[in-house]
Write a structure and sequence with these properties.
By secondary structure, the chain is an alpha/beta fold. It folds into two domains: 96 residues, Alpha-Beta Barrel (TIM Barrel); 239 residues, 3-Layer(aba) Sandwich (Rossmann fold), CATH 3.40.50.620. A six-stranded mixed β-sheet has the order 8-7-6-9-11-10. A hairpin with a 2-residue loop joins strand 10 and strand 11. The chain is elongated and about 85 Å long. 34% of the residues are buried. The chain binds iron/sulfur cluster.
């Protein structure tokens, strides 16, 4: 939007001019100035929107009795300049032009109105498609900002294991909204170092809503009374300690933010920033991050690392199912080492698990 002291040369018409006459004038006009007699007169906004809709690409200038509160609506209607005159409060016009991030009506600028966003939020497939298009090539913070935009009406939560790479995602979330819920699956099988790291990192980042999710006590007593199911049936153990508790914890949550990356497993190789998963939206801001990029973020932000990383654990889960790896081995090699299992199941869905 241009803030003008004087109107440029061009065709001038009062906003009371019939549309046909305005369109005729616009045919030959590189500059068209619409004169407002009163700020309450909405006809100028309608004329501008119709002219833009019908293809007028010349300069469209508003002149006359207008208020700073109307700055954004003028721009959204298709005006690209306003004559303020000498001595106008330019800062007020600029402030009001930037004051609102959401829109209510669909007009020339193609911004998605709030009612439409809420509608899209109720149809996850369409919303996922739009968000993937909107954030194509965007960095992780922009993906997260899009996901956490309150006008979407989503109820999001972060899923974090507070493992080897967790601090990057959590630091990005904390930058935008440290009150975002963070779900931690307290399986009862974590390394003590992980529990201490969870506390220290949460405090450092100012995360205020850490939700510890535990297995159901009765199910645990029935299915795994000696806490050794992991020895004989790791899928059933993960189902008991991770998949079922997470199902319960996510009641009321419709968007889950994860730290998954394409490079981690074959199943994740084509991971997108946004995806649908069992009725929810899943958000993967770090989907294309390499290990080097991750490390650079740790260094730049001076983030504390998980203490076990320095002892040879590049990927960290429950202690019975996590081993240190040799230098040069794949980071995920130490997870369920020696078994065909590569995922605990929370990211695969219940239907994908063969739980006996
Ligand atoms: S990772 Fe191992 S110990 Fe943890 S829930 Fe799964 S099978 Fe059980």
């Amino acid at each position: 939007m241009q803030w003008l002291e004087n109107a440029p040369d061009g065709a001038r018409l009062p906003v009371a001019t019939p549309l046909k006459e305005v369109e005729a004038a616009a045919l030959d006009a590189g500059v068209l100035v619409l004169e407002f007699d009163a700020f309450r007169d909405g006809r100028g906004f309608s004329l501008a929107a119709v002219l833009r809709e019908r293809g007028y690409r010349g300069r469209l200038i508003a002149d006359g009795h207008l208020l700073p509160d109307q700055a954004r609506h003028l721009r959204r209607s298709g005006f690209d300049g306003v004559v303020l005159g000498a001595g106008a409060d330019l800062a007020a016009w600029q402030r009001m032009d930037a004051a609102f991030s959401a829109t209510y009506q669909p007009v020339e600028d193609r911004a998605v109105p709030i009612w439409r966003r809420r509608g899209l939020a109720r149809t996850p497939g369409a919303l996922v498609e739009r968000l993937n298009l909107q954030t194509r090539g965007a960095d992780a913070e922009s993906i997260l900002r899009a996901a956490l935009d309150p006008s979407l009406g989503l109820k999001p939560a972060v899923l974090s294991s507070f493992g080897a790479e967790a601090a990057v995602l959590l630091s990005l979330v904390a930058r935008i909204d440290p009150s975002t819920p963070v779900v931690f699956l307290e399986t009862g099988m974590h390394f003590l170092q992980t529990l201490a790291y969870r506390t220290a990192l949460s405090e450092r980042l100012g995360l205020s809503d850490i939700r510890l999710v535990t297995p159901d006590a009765r199910e645990r007593a029935e299915v795994d009374p000696r806490d050794d199911l992991w020895r004989t049936d790791a899928d059933a153990c993960c189902d008991l300690r991770k998949v079922r508790p997470l199902d319960r914890a996510l009641a009321g949550i419709d968007a889950v933010i994860t730290g998954r990356k394409q490079r981690q497993t074959a199943e994740r190789a084509s991971l997108q920033p946004f995806e649908r998963f069992e009725g929810r939206i899943r958000i993967n801001p770090l989907h294309d991050w390499s290990a080097e990029r991750l490390q650079a973020w740790y260094d730049a932000e001076d983030l504390p690392g998980h203490p076990l990383v320095a002892q040879g654990y590049p990927s960290i889960g429950c202690w019975p199912c996590t081993q240190a790896v040799e230098g040069g081995e794949d980071a995920r090699f130490g997870r369920w080492s020696g078994a065909a299992k590569t995922e605990c199941g929370i990211h695969l869905g219940r239907r994908a698990l063969a739980v006996g």
